[in-house]
Amino acid sequence: MSRKRILLLGSTGSIGTQTLDVISRHSDRFRVVGLAAGSNADAVSEQAARFDVRHVGLADTVQASRLQAENSLVEVFGGSDGLVEMVHAVAPDLVVGAISGFAGLPSILAALELGINVALANKEPLVAAGELIMTTAERTGAEVIPIDSELSAILQCLAGEKRSDISRVLLTASGGPFAKLPPEQLSQVTPQQALAHPNWKMGQKVTIDSATLANKGFEVFEVRWLFDVSFDRIEVVVHHQSVIHSLVEFSDTSVIAQLGWPDMRVPIQYALSYPDRLASDLKPLDLTKTSPLTFAAPDTDRFPCLQLAYEAGRAGGGYPVVLTGADEAAVRLFLQERIGFAEIAGCIEQALEAFDGQTVTGLDEIEEVNDWAVRFVTESADKS
After folding, report:
1. Domains (ranges, CATH) in the chain?
2. What is the pLDDT of residues 129-148, one digit of tens each?
3. 75-78 and 55-58: which strand pairing?
């Protein structure tokens, strides 16, 4: 059996390193043919040597030039355009999209245009450009396979089922580290506290988004576009234990759930091998050793980012793009300690209110609106 050739975009982040761990456990099934990262030239160079990869990319063009000068064993692609060129040059069987934030969208679209399947980990592309991504995939016959644990759970729940039979999708949320924190203390939360997720090992951006519930709002968009489910049939349920990763209710009121320990390598492996399922040596679930499984409605008064996501989704047009751009800028400001944790939602809301309602269709317009949202939030913080 020939090995599946994989191009990994975002190789040095949390999802990227765990993807490489899965690949190393199944080296008879998968082969890495390209690696790309943001600016960590040393780390991606070490990964390239470890996995015998000859094509690497860096979004940071300065670091890309430095790496090319220092390492003649690899061909280096620099910048956003370089990552798109890399997709064409490598022509893999599968692209893993794990570049944090909005930056991975052009390379993801490039892969889909070529009819290459994409295993998607970062949420912002489907939020900002869900319709564009899915229509491109439909036109070329490519598949978009979710890596997110909740979205992977839904994909597994729907195996062999008719999507027309879906009544509701129940999207579980861990609630983050501050689910029980009194409202008056949210303004005192530090970046270090927000980055200490109780269940999952994730990158900085998605960990902060999990704490604000923005992450769950983004996943609502993923459900909307990946499974063609309307916003009013997607419900978020807080499930602190992160054992049930999501559920699907069907028209006969039957509910199917997917369960497992919170380990991202499980949905990563499923995405890499899809539609097949590979054996794993990861820890199996033992229900007798779990704490009681509990469920609660999300508190959108304390964590308004989730409600803002629903509102942006229903408004459509450029509003989802503003949502992702504003959130990305606000999270960056919070990590720099320039705004407080409780101000993140306010930054997003102000950007949505200030947006002129511009309609977006193509990549250029999406990038223009995203840049406006980032600039609006950043400049607003500078003035305050």
Report:
1. 4-147 (3.40.50.720), 151-260+298-383 (1.10.1740.10)
2. 999 999 999 999 999 999 99
3. parallel
